[in-house]
């Protein structure tokens, strides 16, 4: 009779590798996220009017969509990754103008941080985008 010895760490490693493989397969099956299907329409602008911003949607550490009154959407792709932005999906900004511009800085708002702000990051230009209609 032979005895097989398997350690807990070996089982944990096997489970981890299995979960990684299934996650990768699920991601490749899904393809791109709907927000990645946006098409540029027109030229990018340096500033958008604060009074026209209806809401914002953070997609990841570099991509924010600004939904405007009237239905227009401006995508801002930050020139650099802003750590934690995609996880927190919240940011703040300060400006003395009536516009938000590519020269402004946003700060990640940490929802569970007890008042501690996250990193501050520069904005890029605001690219008008549209999404393909459902067929």
Written description of the protein model:
With 135 residues, the protein is of the alpha+beta class. The chain has one domain (34-130). The chain contains 2 helices and 10 strands; from the N terminus they run H-E-E-E-E-E-H-E-E-E-E-E. The strands form 3 sheets. The chain has a 5-stranded antiparallel sheet, with no helix packed on it. A 3-stranded antiparallel sheet has the order 6-8-9, with no helix packed on it. A hairpin with a 4-residue loop joins strand 3 and strand 4. The chain is globular and about 40 Å long. 10% of the residues are buried. Residues 1-29 have low confidence and may be disordered.
Query: What is the C-alpha radius of gyration, as a whole number of Å?
Result: 21 Å
* Total domains: 1
Give the averaged pLDDT, no decimals: 80
Quote the distance from N terminus to C terminus. Answer: 64 Å
Give the helix/strand class: alpha+beta
Binned strand content: 25-35%
Care to give the gist of this entry?
Helices cover 20% and strands 33% of the residues. With 135 residues, it is of the alpha+beta class.
Layout of secondary structure:
Blueprint: H1 8-30, E1 39-40, E2 47-49, E3 53-58, E4 63-68, E5 73-77, H2 85-88, E6 91-93, E7 99-101, E8 105-109, E9 117-122, E10 126-130
Antiparallel strand pairs: 1-10, 2-7, 3-4, 4-5, 5-10, 6-8, 8-9
Tag the structure with descriptive keywords.
globular; 3-stranded antiparallel sheet; single chain; 5-stranded antiparallel sheet; 135 residues; 2 helices; disordered N terminus; 10 strands; alpha+beta
């Amino acid at each position: 009779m032979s005895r097989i010895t398997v350690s807990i760490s070996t089982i944990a490693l096997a489970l981890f590798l299995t979960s990684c493989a299934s996650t990768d397969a699920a991601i490749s099956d899904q393809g791109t996220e709907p927000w990645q299907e946006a098409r540029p329409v027109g030229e990018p602008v340096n500033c958008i009017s604060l009074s026209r911003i209806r809401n914002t949607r953070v997609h990841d550490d570099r991509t924010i969509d600004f939904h405007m009154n009237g239905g227009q959407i401006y995508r801002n792709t930050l020139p650099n990754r802003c750590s934690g932005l995609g996880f927190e999906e919240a940011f703040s900004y300060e400006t003395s103008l009536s516009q938000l511009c590519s020269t402004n800085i946003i700060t990640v708002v940490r929802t569970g941080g007890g008042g501690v702000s996250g990193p501050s990051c520069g904005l890029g230009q605001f690219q008008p985008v549209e999404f393909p209609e459902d067929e």
